[in-house]
Design goal:
This protein is α+β, with helices and mostly antiparallel strands and 140 residues long. The protein has helices spanning 16-24, 26-29, 117-139, and strands at 6-12, 35-36, 45-49, 59-69, 73-78, 88-97, 100-108. The chain has one domain (6-139): START domain (Alpha-D-Glucose-1,6-Bisphosphate, Chain A, domain 4, 2-Layer Sandwich). The chain is globular.
Length: 140
């Protein structure tokens, strides 16, 4: 079975503690991705809420927080209706560098999907590019 892993690295002109807030605080998360449902806690559930007209506030993505080490590492599972209950994993690492942050996302687990794992990984790869373009703007 082929493993599909999305790896994204972005260089942000802000220190890790600032970038961390945009990964973990619901209102800051909303500026580049989607509104978070609440505070993250290790072992706890997390969710992102939709901003789609007529469905505002509904859960769109969810998972469980597996690791929460501010401000260097966040690991959580990730699923949404198109994944049909299959949980993938997002590992975020933040490394201080030159007055800024090197942020790396590893999003894996696509091979667990029965239906078109490559296509689903490719779609999410494109989506992460779009979200990271906004991430760069809001963290600087």
């Amino acid at each position: 079975m082929t493993e599909f892993t999305i790896v994204k690295t972005v260089f942000l002109k802000a220190p890790p503690d600032h970038v961390w807030k945009f990964l973990t605080e619901p209102d800051k998360l909303a500026t580049w991705f989607h509104q978070g449902e609440g505070e993250l806690k290790k072992g706890g559930d997390w969710a992102l809420l939709t901003n789609s007209l007529g469905r505002e506030g509904e859960r769109m993505c969810s998972g469980k927080v597996l690791e929460l080490n501010a401000p260097t590492k966040l690991v959580h599972t990730f699923t949404h209706p198109h994944l049909k209950g299959v949980e993938t994993t997002c590992t975020w690492t933040l490394q201080a560098a030159g007055g800024g942050t090197v942020l790396t996302l590893v999003h894996d687990g696509w091979e667990k999907l029965d239906d078109d794992p490559f296509g689903m990984a490719a779609d999410h790869d494109t989506g992460w590019d779009e979200h990271f373009a906004r991430f760069r703007r809001v963290t600087s």
